[in-house]
Amino acid sequence: MSPAKHEVATCRIALINPNTSTKATALMLSSARLGLPPQVQVEGRTARQGTVLITNQTALDEAATLVADYGVEVAAEGFDALIISGFGDPGLEALRQRVNIPVFGIAQAGISEAAHGGRRYAIVTVTPDLLASLEQAAKTHGQDGTLVSIRFTDGPLAAVMSTPQDLEVALLSACETAMNVDLAQAIVIGGGPLAQAAQAIAERLHIPVIDPVVSAMRLAIKALSSRQG
User: Which CATH number fits domain 108-211: 2.20.70.10, 3.40.50.12500, 3.40.50.1980, 3.30.365.10?
Assistant: First the structure.
């Protein structure tokens, strides 16, 4: 499914990566540009401080502070909307209070899509130390009773993330457990840097596997279309 179902005039959307990995930013942009209409431009911006990968609550809290400040700078470049491309949506509410353009989070978008219509869904990701924040995101953006599980990949994080192939295999295994054991009807992949793996996994399962970056792009384009209309 492409990011855009809504007609929108020429606009620029910034994808803000709350970690410091330019490689992750490039991967997320690849997802964000899937099926993008020519009149919509998306550009990546990478946090100048912080960690290469947000794996615990301390790092998430620090990213929230950084994004709230950095996002103001990015908005001043003339963008029409911002997307925070970290699954904890760090700094989302604070940034919304500080800029006069729409701001979206990939957890907000991905969970909302997964739970749409009361669908039973699971979150699959790589960071068990962020369980509490994932549960909170599900309460905030999902529907009561629709989250059936939060599943994490097996093995050391460094090994799981060592190659795209290793990441895909680990995520696929966790997704199969969510589908076969937890009876999830949809799965959202919980992480911007993991987003591209969602595309490959979706081809191998018979339930929707949601790339939250693509979901956020759809949400942003829909909002901009409504504002322009």
Answer: 3.40.50.12500
Q: How far apart are CA 123 and CA 24, in angstroms?
A: 20
- Residue among 123, 143, 109, 131 at smallest CA distance from 188: 123
φ and ψ at residue 97, rounded to 5 degrees: -75, -15
pLDDT per residue, tens digit, the chain (229 aa), is 455 455 667 899 999 999 999 999 999 999 999 878 888 999 999 999 999 999 999 999 999 999 999 999 999 999 999 999 999 999 999 999 999 999 999 999 999 999 999 999 999 999 999 999 999 999 999 888 899 999 999 999 999 998 889 999 999 999 999 999 999 999 999 988 887 788 889 889 989 999 999 999 999 999 998 776 5
Q: Is 201 helix (H, G, I), strand (E, B) or coil?
A: helix
Asked: is 11-105+213-228 a CATH 3.40.50.2000 domain? The reply is: no
